[in-house]
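F.,

This is the one I mentioned.
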């Protein structure tokens, strides 16, 4: 039940003794909109095979995302946002994801919206630094922030207080 979303198709070139060699680089996000998301990248001489490679790579990189109701202004108890503030960084891009009350929506760029929707997160505030126009780095920074959610160790009692059912 995974959905896939092509986020970027880019033409890349390299110089060869016989001239320029052209490849396509594709970035794809996959997710089930219920706590699982993956991000992948593929390169090939044509767009179709590049997309297939990227989808396969994204399926290999699937992670489980912790969700909860971590905002102080919201006590609904549903899993609609990130349970606590996290940071993800790739190259020059740094992204902070912060819990938001229900109804706020995804306050982040389009690339981040796509990844968070596929992860099943409906409300989040964000702060980003660096060259966020670089789609690859911005997507990886958001994905790394979501990966950080699972790396934080907490007791079952603390997770219950944050509204996380993990």
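My design for it:
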């Amino acid at each position: 039940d995974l959905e896939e979303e092509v986020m970027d198709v880019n033409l890349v070139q390299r110089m060869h003794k016989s001239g320029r060699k052209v490849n396509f680089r594709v970035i794809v996000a996959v997710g089930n909109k219920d706590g699982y998301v993956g991000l992948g990248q593929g390169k090939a001489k044509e767009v179709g095979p590049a997309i297939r490679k990227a989808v396969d790579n994204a399926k290999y990189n699937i992670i489980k995302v912790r969700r909860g109701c971590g905002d102080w202004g919201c006590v609904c108890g549903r899993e609609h946002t990130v349970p606590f503030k996290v940071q993800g960084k790739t190259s020059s891009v740094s992204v902070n994801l912060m819990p938001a009350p229900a109804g706020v929506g995804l306050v982040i760029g389009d690339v981040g919206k796509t990844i968070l929707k596929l992860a099943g997160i409906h409300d989040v505030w964000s702060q980003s630094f660096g060259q966020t126009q670089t789609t690859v780095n911005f997507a990886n920074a958001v994905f790394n922030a979501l990966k950080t959610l699972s790396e934080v160790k907490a007791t079952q009692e603390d997770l219950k207080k944050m509204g996380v059912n993990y």
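The chain has two domains: 3-64, 86-162.

Talk soon.
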